[in-house]
Amino acid sequence: AVVLGLLAAAGAGVGAGHLTGTGTGTAAVLGLAAGACALVGLRVAAYDYPSRFVHMTAGVALPLAAAAPAVYVLGRALV
């Protein structure tokens, strides 16, 4: 599941690279990094078990919160 998620993120990066004209290689690396950060955040959120509501909200918010700063820094460095 982890490898599939990373491949999907890299594929989304390639698609975004075609749409924006930044190049597929750079966009694939950026998508892969975003996917890795999101998977780390999702793994951390999986340990939050007090209630289903808290688990579901943390499962959405935490991966986004973990990925956003890293994607910004990588995007500035690569593009």
TrEMBL record:
<keyword id="KW-0472">Membrane</keyword>
<protein>
    <recommendedName>
        <fullName>Integral membrane protein</fullName>
    </recommendedName>
</protein>
<feature type="transmembrane region" description="Helical">
    <location>
        <begin position="53"/>
        <end position="74"/>
    </location>
</feature>
<keyword id="KW-0812">Transmembrane</keyword>
<feature type="transmembrane region" description="Helical">
    <location>
        <begin position="26"/>
        <end position="46"/>
    </location>
</feature>
<keyword id="KW-1133">Transmembrane helix</keyword>
